[in-house]
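User: What would this chain look like folded?
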Amino acid sequence: MKKTVILAIVAFITATGCKEDVEKSASRHLDNAREAFSELNYSLAKQEIDSIRILYPKAFEARKQGLALMQEIEMAEQLRSIEYEDSMIALAKAAFEAIKGNYIFEKDEQYQDMGSYTIKSQDPIRNIERNYIRGKVDELGRMTLVSHYRGNAYIHHDQIRLNVGETYVETPVSDERHEFTDLGICYERLSFMNGNDGGAAAFINENIDKDITYTLYRQTDTGSKRAVSGNLKMNREDRYAIAQLYNLSQVLLSLNGHRTIRDEAERHLNFIRSRMKSTQDTIQEDE
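Assistant: Here's the prediction, encoded as structure tokens.
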């Protein structure tokens, strides 16, 4: 009986000592994490907290404190992200304000949720007598190219190739085509929506001061394509208009991209704050 009691006491002391050693070892990682956090080294701080979870799964107190610290780190990361995105949004807004006077903004408030920016020189009414490529950019920065064609008969074109010498770029095939006849003349409007132009706008922007020709294609029933109108030339005014719109697109895409990231960081921050309150309540209850 006496031997059994002695063994039980020894086992209790051993278990207690092991528990203290585990918590002590885990606490060293916790201290390292706190130091890294104070130095704004969030990555190292999270690594130290992860080490507690992996190496000392039974260090319950250290893990609890580590969880609370991890939430503080995550909150600090989101606050830093919001601060950065705010600065980038301010820069993009300034860039937009500096150039927005170059464009016409069109929006029918009654029927349209999204307005678009265009260049006055490319107004379809002013260019009804010619073939050309027109650009426009919506409020989110998505650019659309529209091929305007007129002729004595429909050609039903669905693709464009643009050339600068032997260098070229092709749009994808598009079925966004509107056709109509007026006074015996056939008109086609083929659109490449929301940046889905195969890099055509960027190609025009890069070659703004070079001669650009383009060819209109139609897909055949066999899956091949054939040219239905070729050797069309972009004039200087159209090249510069599309280049201007392309630059506007990049500014607005950047502005709205940073806004999206900031909004997501704000949502994540609010979620972390709610978790932190729950964690703090649990710690207080345990104490």
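The two ends are 38 Å apart (CA to CA). If you want, I can go into more detail on any region.
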